Amino acid sequence: MWIDKLADGVVRVQTPIGPRYVIPSFLQRLYLVWMFRNFPILPHAVLNSRQQRMIDRLCAEQRFASMAYADGMD
Predict the structure, then answer these.
(1) Which of 25, 28, 33, 74 is at a distance of 20 to 30 A from 54, taking alpha carbons?
(2) Residues with pLDDT less than 50, the chain
(3) What SS3 state is found at 48?
(4) Predicted model pTM
């Protein structure tokens, strides 16, 4: 199952203006699988500073998925 998560995918990040669907790189996906290995959802405040910076960089990059693609990933 976790191999499928590494192959490709979209990550939904909840922001104050609504959800953003971002496409992380392979290494970012690997790190995200590790970060969320025990929990499907974590608030930004419980992440350490390195993890918070990574999430902030993901949101700042312009690699967004279209809504049609994101909806199909449920």
Answers:
(1) 74
(2) 70, 74
(3) coil
(4) 0.70
